Amino acid sequence: MAEEVMKKLEEHDTQLEIIARTVVNAQKQLSGVETRVVSVENRLTGVENRLVRVETKLDRVEQRMENFVTKEDHQEVMNALDALIVLAQKKDQELTFVGHQVKRNTEDIAKIKPLVGLEALS
Q1: In terms of Cα–Cα distance, which of 31, 26, 88 is closest to 54?
Q2: For residue 78, how many other CB atoms are within 10 A of its CB?
Q3: d(C-alpha 107, C-alpha 101), whole Å
Q4: Would you say 113 and 122 are in contact if contact means Cβ atoms under 8 Å apart?
Q5: CA geometry: angle at 42 spanning 41 and 44, to 5°?
Q6: pLDDT digit string (tens) for 40-65?
Q7: Are 42 and 95 in contact (CB under 8 A)?
Q8: String of DSSP letters for 49-83
Q9: Cα Rg, the chain, nearest whole Å
Q10: Are 73 and 65 in contact (CB under 8 A)?
Q11: Which of 21, 40, 51, 122 has the smallest CB count inside 10 Å?
Q12: Cβ-contact 30, 105 below 8 angstroms
């Protein structure tokens, strides 16, 4: 009888170790996702700063245009806007990708919680 109890306890220990490793792995993945989200947010802040600088440049161009507009001035503005559009599209794609990753990780964590007994804590 005692051997059966010990065997069951060892089985439970093994299962708990597997669950603990799974939780640790999930936490590492979440940490990685959080790091990527922070990185994307930082890059977006940089884009916002660039947009502010471009808006400032546009204001200056508009003031110059009141007096005299050249093809070169117009082309400079259009090139800057084209570059910003490309940057904005790339950032939008990155945010979409990261959003999908976060959603998948959230779903995975939701599946893992009942296995580790965390659903009662939510």
Answers
A1: 88
A2: 10
A3: 10
A4: yes
A5: 65
A6: 888 889 889 998 998 999 998 888 77
A7: no
A8: HHHHHHHHHHHHHHHHHHH---HHHHHHHHHHHHH
A9: 27
A10: yes
A11: 122
A12: yes
**First vs last Cα of the chain: how many Å apart?**
38
Give the residue from 122, 96, 109, 114 showing the smallest Cα distance to 29.
Answer: 109
Torsion-angle region of residue 70: left (phi > 0), alpha (psi -120 to 50) or beta? beta
pLDDT in tens, 59-102: 988 887 777 768 898 899 999 999 999 999 999 999 999 999 99
Type of residue found at 105:
N
SS3 percent helix, strand, coil of the chain, rounded to 5, is 95, 0, 5
Kindly state the tokens that stand for 10. Answer: 């060892």
Instruction: Tell me the C-alpha distance between 35 and 100, whole Å.
Output: 15
**Two structure tokens written together for 84:** 């910003």
For residue 6, CA distances in Å to 11, 19, 75 come to 9, 20, 80
